[in-house]
Design goal:
Belongs to the ferredoxin--NADP reductase type 1 family. InterPro entries: FAD-bd_FR_type, FNR_bac, FNR_nucleotide-bd, FNR_type-1, Riboflavin_synthase-like_b-brl. This is ferredoxin--NADP(+) reductase. The chain is an alpha/beta fold. It has 8 helices and 11 strands. The protein binds flavin-adenine dinucleotide and NADP nicotinamide-adenine-dinucleotide phosphate (NAP).
């Protein structure tokens, strides 16, 4: 499991003579969309030299408040999954708004033309390289854990390597599913994927959204729906097995641990890593 603790970097000296000091590793925001009072997504410019694998994460942020004693400002950075695919000329992120969160209490107010800090050092375990070949790939997300799959669902390799792509997304409320649902709907008209993978590639995708605290067509935690067999019956596929199924998990800690236990002890799947590819990989959507 990949656990990169969000860190605050050492301050880069700011030259007091500069009227408007440029941020270190600055990128310009090109679009912001608010999905609910707790969720938003934004796009920004991509550093020319940045190469990443779909599913990886980077550290992004803003300048923190000036130190009351020295007046110096330090970058305030947090880990963020890159929601855009590796081929996109811009970067996209999908974010929570934590009202008293050091970063997102401010980040939620960014507008087109603003600058953010983006450290160009992508890492992560939710990558195709960490899985051995299979027939069917499952993406399991809760909340903002959908972000790395927003990248992987737009990545041609996903469809080149697998015959079936199943994405499950469990949220408390129905409105929290909208970013994911719209993204999946937009794939039908994705010119690059239609050209590279072939018309109708999107028919490989099975989308399984569920809510736990607000009425929606499918209620319940995905873990419970898998244990009861309901999810497999709804999707028309057998339970996961090591011969055909591969999976990526991104959610809160309890969700990740529950699925890992289910995979290892019920379905007989083995956890993989960049250095040792296997059947499934896990990453936290946030630190508890
Ligand atoms: C590998 C990794 C990838 C991440 N990718 C994303 C991402 O793509 N989008 C994103 O919004 N966040 C992501 N996070 C979480 C992110 O790093 C920050 O925690 C988040 O932006 C809030 O920052 P903050 O400074 O406002 O509050 P923090 O002090 O970081 O968090 C305050 C509290 O808010 C809650 N919280 C934090 N993040 C979330 C979240 N995403 N969903 C629900 N509750 C949360 C937790 O209870 C946390 O203790 C990721 C974290 C890790 C470790
Ligand atoms: N989402 C909101 O409307 C809301 C509003 C205000 C504050 N908050 C706070 O924000 C934080 C994060 O909330 P969040 O909703 O983004 O994320 P979350 O608490 O991780 O929940 C996201 C989804 O994951 C499900 N889930 C949790 N543990 C699971 C497990 N072990 N197995 C399977 N599914 C599991 C939840 O179901 P359950 O509902 O059954 O737990 C929910 O549907 C929390 O501290 C919360 O108090 C959230």
């Amino acid at each position: 499991m990949n656990e990169m603790t969000p860190v605050t970097d050492t301050a880069t000296d700011l030259k007091p003579a500069k009227a408007v000091p440029a941020l270190p590793d600055a990128q310009t925001v090109t679009q912001v969309k608010h999905w609910t009072d707790r969720l938003f997504s934004f796009r920004c410019t991509r550093p020319a030299s940045l190469r990443f694998r779909s599913g990886e994460f980077v550290m992004i942020g803003l300048m923190g408040d000036p130190d009351p004693k020295t007046g110096k400002q330090k970058p305030l950075l947090r880990a963020y999954s890159i929601a855009s695919p590796s081929w996109d000329e811009e970067m996209e992120f999908y974010s929570i708004k934590v009202q008293d969160g050091p970063l997102t209490s401010k980040l939620q107010h960014i507008k087109e033309g603003d600058e953010i800090i983006l450290r160009p050092k992508p890492v992560g375990t939710l990558v195709h390289d960490a899985l051995v070949p299979g027939k069917r790939i499952w993406f399991f997300a809760t909340g903002t854990g959908f972000a790395p799959f927003a990248s992987l669902l737009r990545e041609p390799e996903t469809y080149e390597k697998f015959d079936e792509v199943i994405i499950t997304h469990t949220c408390r409320e129905a409105g929290e599913l909208t970013y994911g649902r719209e993204l999946i709907e937009s794939l039908k008209d994705d010119e690059l994927l239609n050209e590279v993978i072939g018309e109708g590639f999107w028919k490989k995708i099975k989308y399984y959204p569920t809510t736990t605290r607000e009425e929606s067509p499918k209620m319940g935690r995905i873990t419970d729906l898998m244990r009861s067999g309901e999810a497999f019956a709804d999707l028309g596929v057998p339970p996961l097995n090591p011969e055909s199924d591969r999976a990526m998990i991104c959610g809160n800690l309890a969700f990740n641990l529950e699925l890992k236990d289910l995979f290892e002890n019920t379905y007989g799947l083995e956890e993989g890593a960049n250095s040792r590819p296997a059947h499934f990989v896990v990453e936290k959507a946030f630190l508890d």
